[in-house]
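Hey, quick one: can you model this chain's 3D structure?
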Amino acid sequence: MKITFLIPLLLLLVVSPVFGQISDKTGLLTRLDVDTSGHTFEVVTVSNFEILDHEFDKEEKRLTIFIKSGLENNLGEVTIPKNLLAGNFTFYINDIETTQKSKSNERISFITLNFTGIGNNKIDIIGTDALVGVKEITEPISDEKVPYEESGGGCLIATATFGSELAPQVQQLRELRDNKLLQTESGKSFINSFNTFYYSFSPQIADYQRENPIFNEIIKAGITPMITTLSLMDYAETESEVLSLGISLIILNVGMYVGLPAIVILGIRRI
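Sure thing. Here's the predicted structure for all 271 residues.
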């Protein structure tokens, strides 16, 4: 019962045929614990490649992520708390400087990685500021993590639609995933299956949105009502409430996206 009832929600996001199946690790959210100066910071990634390891050099203000990819085209999102690493970023893929996109607010830096290369790769993210306002602790590292209020990656299609990873609509989807779905077993199962499916076509859709403003407006008109209805998930507190509200939203969205157009078409045919 866990994920079966949530799978139809995937159909509401499909605006183009699937472009081929990829790794079963595609889109999995990974949380990296970065231990430095007596604190533990949490870096969050969502990607279509596997995270093998990571390391942080506070002197060089560098976060290094070691990955393994089964695809030529790699796409990832990295969320870094600004009290760990901030400022103007420089990026290196396998020791070669490259240009990547980054956005930030007062708490986090959100980085979108897009590069090519199958197999093992090394990603270096170098900032101009590190551990700002963080007091070094010489005692053993505790299990408590330095908190920050926002985590997780964003939705590629929603980001392209609304123009920024920090747009309110993208933040809403990210918070729904991290604060609701990932807090329940059924939600985790849904996210894992959804990401495998979603990342198989969303990069192509997002790229086409950026190239075609008219297509982007069509997508915006299509997903805005769905995002609005998802705000009802804020009222779900328990696993059963997440399931029941999720099923209700599926029925509601099927009615909006399938039922209403069908009624209109039937009405026109009778005229």
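One thing worth noting: Confidence is low (pLDDT under 50) at residues 1-26, 141-153.
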